[in-house]
């Protein structure tokens, strides 16, 4: 599904050029649950911005489902991102004034659905993440773990081709982190392709594969022992 070949990424700061991704070769197949792990500044965020169609300025080749991304326009890239990628962030990024239902519904409305077409899908997804009884509440009425479940529901409501979860347990305690990782594991078993960015070794056991990155280079690619 995702195929990066000889990808290099540079950031220019004044007269200097910073080499943040170095000769990255990476293939991720449909249905995988991949962890990307590395210290701060290792290039994790840059890599997922590229994979998630946020950043298109790089050297090398990115093939998505066999189609090259190099000559895609910004408008096409935005459309690709909205249709194919679900994002989950460490700080949830929910709209505080909206209910759980409304937060989950937003991607459907952005995708062109009208209010009469969204109800069944929103309620179905809320149930999948264990929030069927919370749809009328607002984020501030929920625990951190419940807010992250809302964010996961919002990420999957459009049935994306893959999910990028960027440190999704970073703001949660260990018990809640375990619950959230079990939600991701369940989604993966149901067929979701998940790319998890993490620095927490406890989250790795839920994944099938571990990519290690340091100083912009992939230094390890291994199957996670079960």
Primary descriptors:
alpha/beta; Rossmann fold; six-stranded mixed beta sheet
What can you tell me about this protein's structure?
The strands form two sheets. Strands 6-7-8-3-9-10 form a six-stranded mixed beta sheet, with helices on both faces. A four-stranded antiparallel beta sheet has the order 2-1-4-5, covered by helices on one side. By secondary structure, the protein is α/β, with parallel strands linked by helices. The chain has a single domain, classed as P-loop containing nucleotide triphosphate hydrolases (Rossmann fold). Strand 4 and strand 5 form a beta hairpin.
Quick overview:
By secondary structure, the chain is of the alpha/beta class.
What is the topology?
Elements: E1 2-13, E2 16-28, E3 33-37, H1 44-51, E4 59-64, E5 67-68, H2 74-84, E6 85-89, H3 100-110, H4 119-128, H5 144-156, E7 162-166, H6 174-189, E8 194-198, E9 209-214, E10 217-223
Parallel strand pairs: 3-8, 3-9, 6-7, 7-8
Antiparallel strand pairs: 1-2, 1-4, 4-5, 9-10
């Amino acid at each position: 599904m995702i195929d990066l070949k000889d990808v290099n990424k540079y950031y220019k700061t004044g007269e200097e050029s910073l080499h943040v991704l170095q000769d990255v070769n990476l293939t991720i197949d449909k249905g995988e649950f991949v962890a990307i792990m590395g210290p701060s500044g290792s290039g994790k965020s840059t890599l997922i911005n590229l994979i998630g169609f946020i950043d298109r300025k790089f050297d090398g080749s990115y093939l998505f489902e066999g189609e090259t991304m190099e000559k895609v326009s910004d408008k096409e890239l935005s459309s690709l991102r909205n249709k194919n990628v679900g994002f989950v962030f460490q700080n949830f990024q929910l709209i505080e004034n909206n209910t759980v239902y409304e937060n989950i519904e937003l991607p459907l409305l952005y995708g062109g659905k009208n209010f009469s077409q969204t109800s069944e899908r929103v309620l179905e997804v809320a149930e999948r993440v264990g929030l069927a009884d919370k749809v009328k509440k607002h984020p501030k009425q929920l625990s951190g773990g419940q807010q992250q479940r809302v964010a996961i529901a919002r990420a999957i409501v459009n049935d994306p081709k893959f999910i990028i979860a960027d440190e999704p347990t970073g703001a949660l305690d260990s018990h809640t982190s375990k619950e959230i990782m079990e939600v991701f594991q369940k989604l993966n078993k149901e067929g979701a392709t998940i790319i998890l960015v993490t620095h927490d070794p406890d989250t790795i056991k839920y994944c099938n594969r571990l990519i290690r990155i340091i100083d912009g280079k992939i230094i390890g690619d291994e199957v996670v022992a079960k």
